[in-house]
Design brief:
Number of strands: 10
Low-confidence stretches: 243-252
Structural class: alpha/beta
Strand content: 15-25%
Largest sheet: 8 strands, mixed, barrel
CATH architecture: Alpha-Beta Barrel
Helix content: 25-40%
Number of domains: 1
Number of helices: 10
Distance between the termini: 24 Å
Mean pLDDT: 85
Strand order of the largest sheet: 1-2-4-5-6-7-8-9
CATH superfamily: EAL domain
Radius of gyration: 18 Å
CATH class: Alpha Beta
CATH topology: TIM Barrel
Oligomer: single chain
Order of helices and strands: HEEEHHEHHEHEHEHHEHEE
Length: about 250
Amino acid sequence: MPKGILERLLSGEGAIVPHVQSIYRLRDNRMVAQEYLARHLDDAGVLHPVGTLLQDPDLAPAHRLALDLRFLEATFAALSQQAESGHLHFVNLEPVSLEAPGFWEALPRWLEALPFPRHRVVMEFTESQSMHGLEALQGYAQRLRDAGLRVAVDDLGAGVASLTHMARLAPDFIKADRSLVEQVHRRPYQAALLNALAHFAERMRIGFIAEGIETLEELESVMDADVPWGQGYILAQPWPTRPKPLAGLLQK
């Protein structure tokens, strides 16, 4: 990562541009939720996903934490400017933030600024959190629920620990990884697995979302597998939000 970009983002001078991508109920093509995706501007004014920065192996742990808190601050600032709509709001959560006192200190202030009930916010636990102990993750999930939030397991299918994490965390929502959706119309095993997960989710009253749907053929196969909700470029691409600055959301 270029040093200048890191320094500007950490100082608050670098531009973070939250984006949203819609999630649809597939049977009637109705938008039911939005996922918030942070982007940052480079020196040339080009937008980049923040995941590239956070996954940089050379990034110091302290900087990874500080960056994620900056991205979360920008995301919740965007949420605070949203009009009441009744749909859900999905927010990605890095494991490093769950372990940080600063996150839990800032969270009540972020939630107080929301213009809608906090149970409409869904915090996504990503598959990268498989490196963390299940007992610790269960505790964090319960703390989020105690704060009035809901919990999702993201990237289901991207790693061997996914099903174990899903079972132990007992999430409100599960999101099937792109690896299960890609070329699903050509891969009957993937289609059967999506169908099994869809029926499991229905039985357990868990919301089930297939993400990364990019082609009409994939969309049709996902629907044939009885997956109720979908997300991907064939349905809607991310677009920027333009929140007003909210001072003091994250106090160092």
